[in-house]
Write a structure and sequence with these properties.
Pfam families: EGF_CA. Belongs to the nephronectin family. Residues 32-71, 112-150, 157-195 form the EGF-like domain. It comes from Chauna torquata. There is one protein chain. The chain is built from three helices and 18 strands. The longest helix has 6 residues, at 74-79. The chain has helices spanning 74-79, 115-118, 160-163; strands at 10-14, 17-20, 24-25, 31-32, 46-50, 53-57, 62-64, 70-72, 85-88, 91-94, 101-103, 110-112, 127-132, 135-140, 144-149, 152-157, 172-177, 180-185. It has 197 residues and is mainly beta. 24% of the residues are buried. The protein folds into four domains: 1-33, Laminin, CATH 2.10.25; 46-112, no CATH class; 127-157, no CATH class; 158-196, Laminin (Ribbon), CATH 2.10.25.10.
Length: 197
């Protein structure tokens, strides 16, 4: 079986037919399935979609049970967790709905983990990391722009010489480089390329 565009999160089952792994959808299995939007809803109270999966959490005073249900719990209400709690080996523990969040010093509220500064984030060379609450995303580096090229989105070098966004001197030539540009004074002129005399 050959799938021309490939199956990103799945396997090729027939000519251009992908069978997606759980949590993924689309013709090429390249889209995350938002389980929180499914009917019936997988969680009784609150649902947070994650890459390839989802997480359930309960309102304060409720305990997360197997299967995404929430049970009223006196102990949970007493602990006063921000996102509900679970019982582990007889001990009540507050929960955070995302791997990008961690329990704060008080053990009840969730604080953001900055994946960009902690080195947890994985972005390709032409993308830079932008932290968000509970997660992060990879944005094109300066000098690159997001374009749909050969059936997928990628960060492509901006040719400042063509787009006229360079600051080269009138008597200089603009030379495009990967992610930037250079200015070189024309013959008979001297200088930095930004100033030519």
């Amino acid at each position: 079986a050959i799938c021309g565009h490939g199956c990103k999160y799945g396997e090729c089952m027939g000519p251009n037919k992908c069978k997606c792994f759980p949590g993924f959808t689309g013709k090429n299995c390249n889209q995350d399935l938002n389980e929180c939007g499914l009917k019936p809803r997988p969680c009784e109270h609150r649902c947070m979609n994650t890459h390839g999966s989802y997480k359930c959490y309960c309102l304060n005073g409720y305990m997360l049970m197997p299967g995404g249900t929430c049970a009223s719990s006196r102990t949970c209400a007493m602990v006063n967790c921000q996102y509900g709690c679970e019982e582990v080996k007889g001990k009540v523990q507050c929960l955070c709905p995302s791997a990008g969040l961690q329990l704060g010093p008080n053990g009840r509220t969730c604080i953001d983990i900055d994946e960009c500064s902690s080195g947890r984030a994985v972005c390709s060379f032409n993308r830079r990391c932008v932290n968000t609450f509970g997660s992060y995303y990879c944005k094109c580096q300066l000098g690159y722009e997001l374009k749909y090229v050969s059936s997928h989105y990628d960060c492509v070098d901006v040719n400042e010489c063509v787009t006229n966004t360079h600051r080269c001197n009138l008597h200089a030539e603009c030379l495009n480089t990967e992610g930037s540009f250079k200015c070189k004074c024309k013959q008979g002129y001297r200088g930095s390329g930004f100033d030519c005399a």
